[in-house]
Amino acid sequence: MTASPNDGVDPAPNPHATAEEVEAALKDTKLAQVLYHDWEAETYDDKWSISYDERCIEYARGRFDAVAGDQPLPYERALELGCGTGFFLLNLMQGGVAGTGSVTDLSPGMVKVALRNAEGLGLPVDGRVADAERIPYDDNTFDLVVGHAVLHHIPDVEQSLREVIRVLKPGGRFVFAGEPTTVGDFYARWLSRATWYVTTNVTKLGPLQGWRRPQAELDESSRAAALEAVVDIHTFDPADLERMARSAGAVHVHAASEEFTAAMLGWPVRTFEAAVPEGKLGWNWAKFAFGGWKALSWLDENVMKRFVPKGFFYNAMITGVKPGDKES
Description:
Helix content: 40-55%
Shape: globular
Strand content: 15-25%
Number of strands: 7
Strand order of the largest sheet: 3-2-1-4-5-7-6
Order of helices and strands: HHHHEHEHEEHEHHHEHHE
Distance between the termini: 25 Å
Structural class: alpha/beta
């Protein structure tokens, strides 16, 4: 089968969903994906502390190396599936992993921001609004396909992986990172809910009201959270990810996981940041949050992995190769 980019102009972003649209999206996961990610696109990098400097270049390259191992670089042409704002591919390109890139996402708002970010960085990247289950590129197009925190949004993950294999050149590799494990998602959500509840209630008290976001912003965050519950479809066991990748036709399949204690700090920190007014937290907080995450990530990698099962870590990663003459 061969697919080509759709004719015509990609749809425009819709960053302000109506109550009726949100209600409809609760019953339509793909509509929910579009509305939620269009809603988040312009503020997504700030929300998740995403940057395109050495800090995130090191992070993206670290995830790639952790699961793919030592590879001959750069790959000539790479695709990011479910690109969001382009965080993974753009930082991998800056880190020497790929020369040119393409981005796709179901959300027009995310594609718009990803292309804007690429232009600002001077990176050769094109993009399309596209469904990950029907990638709009020809067979044997890419040397590398990557994605970060995308597979858990896709209704039919195995079908998407088949599409990944189709658009890869023989011997081409895919790398997906940032996927929630089933156990990790359980404790992360409970920690986030508890943090949100405590923060939004404590800041009702007189001396702390200056730390409370306006109610309209809190209500909008709650509506976004309602959609988030719809767009987060799957959690994974690393072994199940390996099985799906092999079933889709990949070889040299390998899954890994990371962030155990780091996730137990990271999720309350992110939730607290979302619950207080923008700009209230300063440089010392950012230094604490990032330094704490790095320290606990080191602990997870060098100590916890020795005795904590792979499926208990929060983030799962998966890589594989399309069969062919150029297999590495």
